[in-house]
Amino acid sequence: MQLSDCTATEREALEALGRRIGPELVVQRLRREGMRAPAPRLSHRLMRAGLRLSGLRGRGRRNVLDIQLRHNEVRLERLPAGFDGFTLLHVSDPHLDMDLEFQRHLIERLQGLVFDACVLTGDFRFHGFGPYQGVLDALHALRPHLGEQVHAVLGNHDTLRMVPGMEARGFPVLMNESVPVRRGSDTIVLAGIDDAHYFRTHDLHRALAGVERHSCVVLLSHTPEPYRLAEHAGVQLMLSGHTHGGQICLPGGIPVFTETPAPRAFVRGAWRYRSLAGYTSVGCGSSVVDVRLNCLPEVTLHRLRCA
Fold first, then answer.
1. Is the pTM of the predicted complex or chain greater than 0.90?
2. Phi, psi for 268 (deg, rounded to 5)
3. What CATH code is carried by the domain that includes residue 90?
């Protein structure tokens, strides 16, 4: 896909976006999007057949709608005192075009939650090709339930063409960028990189350009794969998704597939790599099949504390 393949409205919006994030990123992203194939992989077809034959589809379907609230307290050495107790709502991998009923359950799960800011770590849609207006409509309905401060990154299922529409609906997208988050006289940095799994358009160096080394940086990355880069760059906390925690797991939550080369210790929940604290959400949605086994969906409240 090229800019010339986009509608006139999309082309104008992407040209403006290119002036912000760099035209080379726009070109690279669109080229990779054009390589998407709509045919499901053989393993996906076998998975669907196996679930039907085993009689597990009904239970797995009910699990998809049983969204859990997780709490994660993380201590950060560089966290300013004014941010002690600052809470981030983390939503990942909703795949909003998989299931209309799921969206209602997600909104219900968010009711009454208390947090200071919301971060979303990508995969807002399931289909990596074709129309995306329905996903933008779903995000528009979700937005009033996410608080005042919201930031997002794209996932490997998301098209760059969604970004202007997302931002118009109150979802600023960090494309290898960072923004300051202020609380009183204190500041932390929220950075976001583009997808490092399929598109490989992540650029942490660009995202942290101009950020002082001693700053407390919270990084949004769709996948946990660039954990070494993040630690080397001095990031304090990396929040990710992508893996779904396996989604269909063996008893005990042991994933059959993780869809990432990252160590298995990093595919779900809290983890640490040297000086880097991390958390990989199992996601709140489902992909390929609307089934979860031994791995319930989640949204997470991360409470930041001074070390």
1. yes
2. -160, 140
3. 3.60.21.10
